[in-house]
């Protein structure tokens, strides 16, 4: 089980990022626990300034802009 | 090189559809086809090229570069980085907090926040190719000046007291920058993704902007603009800025509108004032900023941009009369 967090204030890009991750996880058959973090203090706590950011198992793997499906596969497969 | 788009529009409008030159519909359609094809091709090329080098500039990197510099360096650096660093407006809050948290003064942070939506390299290159390098250059120089002076003014007026208290309490974690794939393949993929994301986000603004520009170009009578927005109306610049505020678009979308207005005899200063107002003062952006700053500072922010854009209007109308 991977812990995935999408960091963002809830704008459209953040929603899309969460959707891409859910879709890819289903395709790969990887079980994930997805959490959307909208609290600014928490987001900043990860050192991320450009949203959406993505955290996998406590590790920041992405900041700013939409991730590609290939990126997501890489994070989930690792 | 750009004549190819004029030829394309000629081909479609005159040869394919057999329309007569000089008619309103023909002129509008010609403008629309030429500008839509030109802007989308340019957008794709430019965003791809810039995307290739994008890993060099990010808000996180800008924060690191600006932090700890003396004011002589930090203000010019902030507006310069604001001009080239892209960020989606939903990032303005974390960006604002992140800057202050790094010890970057409020004035420098505001200078960055004002410049960034107004100037971006894509808009500047599209502007240059539709209206020429002189106008693009003027737009950049005035945009940088407005951001720089705005930041200095907010610092002089000690606006720190109008920042929400919680902002000062946030402690940022060690900036955990994800590793960038710097291989050629990685960069190409990243550039492709940038094109999809940015063009995917702004295409409605571009179509809307070109549509308005095309209607103005074909249907709006020249006399109307000369009378109401021409050089003889001293109220044209403030009016242009007021009209621009509720129009929410990005800088690229408003370029074709300004292009059509210029062709109708609207003076350059009035057109620039409108462009800046549409790109930099928008209600959604203000609502986002309200999360970190209190109403008095928002009011000052809007007032500064209003006064500055009107001044830009008068200045350029005067210089190029």
Automatic annotation (TrEMBL), chain A:
Residue stretches making up the Thioredoxin-like fold domain: 3-76
GO molecular function, one term: isomerase activity
Stored InterPro entries: Thioredoxin-like_fold (IPR012336), Thioredoxin-like_sf (IPR036249), THIRX-like_proc (IPR005243)
Statement: the UniProt record of this protein carries the keyword Transport: no
Keywords: Disulfide bond, Isomerase, Redox-active center
Active site: 11 (nucleophile), 14 (nucleophile)
Disulfide-linked positions: 11-14
Coiled-coil portions: none
Keyword Membrane attributed: no
Pfam families assigned to the protein according to its UniProt record, in alphabetical order: Thioredoxin_3 (PF13192)
Official protein name in the record: Putative thiol-disulfide isomerase and thioredoxin
Phylogenetic placement of the source organism: Bacteria, Pseudomonadati, Pseudomonadota, Magnetococcia, Magnetococcales
């Amino acid at each position: 089980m991977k812990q995935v967090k999408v960091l963002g204030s809830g704008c459209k890009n953040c929603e899309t990022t969460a959707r891409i991750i859910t879709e890819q996880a289903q395709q790969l058959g990887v079980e994930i626990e997805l959490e959307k973090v909208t609290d600014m203090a928490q987001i900043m706590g990860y050192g991320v300034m450009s949203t959406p950011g993505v955290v996998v198992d406590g590790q920041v793997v992405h900041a700013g802009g939409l991730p590609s499906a290939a990126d997501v596969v890489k994070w989930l497969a690792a | 090189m750009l004549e190819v788009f004029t030829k394309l529009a000629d081909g479609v409008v005159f040869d394919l559809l057999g329309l007569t030159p000089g008619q309103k519909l023909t002129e509008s359609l010609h403008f629309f086809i030429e500008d839509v094809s030109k802007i989308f091709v340019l957008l794709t090329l430019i965003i791809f090229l810039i995307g290739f080098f994008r890993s060099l500039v990010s808000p996180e990197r800008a924060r690191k570069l600006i932090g700890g510099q003396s004011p002589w360096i930090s203000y010019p650096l902030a507006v310069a980085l604001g001009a080239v660093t892209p960020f989606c407006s939903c990032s303005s809050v974390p960006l604002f907090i992140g800057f202050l948290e790094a010890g970057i003064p409020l004035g420098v942070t505001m200078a960055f926040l004002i410049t960034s939506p107004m100037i971006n390299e894509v808009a500047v290159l599209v502007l240059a190719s539709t209206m020429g390098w002189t106008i693009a250059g003027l737009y950049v120089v005035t945009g940088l000046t407005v951001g720089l002076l705005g930041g200095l003014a907010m610092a002089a007026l000690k606006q720190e007291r109008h920042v929400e208290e919680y902002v000062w309490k946030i402690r940022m974690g060690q900036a955990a920058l994800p590793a960038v794939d710097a291989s050629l393949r990685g960069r190409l993929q990243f550039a492709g993704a940038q094109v999809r994301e940015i063009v995917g986000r702004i295409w409605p603004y571009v179509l809307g902007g070109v549509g308005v520009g095309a209607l103005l170009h074909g249907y709006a009578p020249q006399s109307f603009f000369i009378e109401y927005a021409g050089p003889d109306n001293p109220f044209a610049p403030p009016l242009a800025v007021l009209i621009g505020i509720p129009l929410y678009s990005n800088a690229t979308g408003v370029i074709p509108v300004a292009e059509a207005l210029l062709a109708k005899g609207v003076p350059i200063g009035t057109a620039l004032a409108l462009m800046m107002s549409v790109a930099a003062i928008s209600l959604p952006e203000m609502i986002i900023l309200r999360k970190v700053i209190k109403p008095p500072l928002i009011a000052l922010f809007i007032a500064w941009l209003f006064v500055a854009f009107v001044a830009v209007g008068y200045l350029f109308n005067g210089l190029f009369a």
